[in-house]
Design a protein that fits this description.
The chain has 243 residues and is mainly alpha-helical. The chain is 57% helix and 5% strand. The chain has helices at 2-13, 40-48, 55-70, 74-79, 108-121, 144-157, 166-179, 184-191, 196-240, and strands at 85-86, 91-95, 101-105.
Length: 243
């Protein structure tokens, strides 16, 4: 539509037409796709699918806990060094887009998972003076591709048949915060978004989820009302029947 409109404007400008036949025509708007998210129960199942009896299992549990607890990007998880963590304050320094640094927070579960990994997992994986927090079996910094694989594997172990990828944890983190009443600007700061408009899309997800819940509640109420009316009608019929 934009191309044809420009062509007719050109014809008018060149004197080939008196006016454009597309004047007043409104172009169709693309439907805005909302981010997919996981429920809190699904995320708990994915995280708890990690086998903490092995060093890599302890590492994987820590990665999943941190990603959901802080909403960090995949590249930010990869870039985290040991010195970036303050377990006493439960904060992590990450480097995001545009090489901008910000501090994110983690909860108690993520903190405990990191402590278990640091005491029982990482010492058996790391070699030499590797600065990275999360390392592979060779003791080197874990790659983004490896973390994506870890997320998918644990989703499958948890029995989720839908496609699950690392960024889905970030979407879920933001949506669950807004569902819980968090301020949009706070969520923006935690995600490291330069513009509030980028964060705004998660409010649409929250609104959509609320509408779905309301619709299900209405359907359940209507079904219960119908069942009650049917029971009362049956009772009236029964009292009218002769002995």
């Amino acid at each position: 539509v934009s191309t044809i409109r420009s062509f007719y404007k050109f014809l008018v400008r060149e004197g080939k037409l008196e006016s454009s036949p597309l004047t007043g025509l409104v172009a169709p708007k693309r439907e805005r796709r909302l981010p997919t998210i996981l429920s809190e129960d699904e995320l708990t199942t994915i995280i708890e699918a990690a086998d903490e009896s092995t060093p890599r299992g302890l590492r994987n549990r820590a990665i999943l806990e941190v990603m959901y607890a802080s909403g960090v990007r995949l590249s930010e998880v990869v870039g985290v060094d040991l010195r970036h963590f303050d377990l006493e304050e439960r904060t992590v320094l990450v480097r995001g887009k545009g090489n901008k640094e910000r501090i994110v927070m983690i909860g108690g579960r993520a903190e405990q998972a990191i402590r278990r990994y640091l005491s029982k997992g990482r010492p058996r994986l790391a070699t030499g003076a590797e600065a990275a927090l999360f390392v592979n079996r060779d003791g080197k910094r874990l790659s983004g591709r490896s973390i994506e694989k870890i997320v998918r594997q644990h989703a499958l172990k948890a029995g989720l048949d839908q496609r699950v990828w690392a960024h889905l944890l970030r979407h879920s983190f933001a949506t669950h915060l807004l569902d819980g009443g968090a301020d949009l600007r706070v969520v923006q700061d935690l995600l490291g978004h330069a513009s509030a408009q980028t964060t705004q899309i998660y409010t649409h997800v929250t609104e959509e989820r609320q509408r779905d819940k309301l619709e299900r509640a209405r359907e359940a109420m209507a079904a219960a009302t119908l069942k009650n009316l049917q029971a009362r009608a049956a009772k009236r019929r029964a009292t009218r029947e002769p002995l």
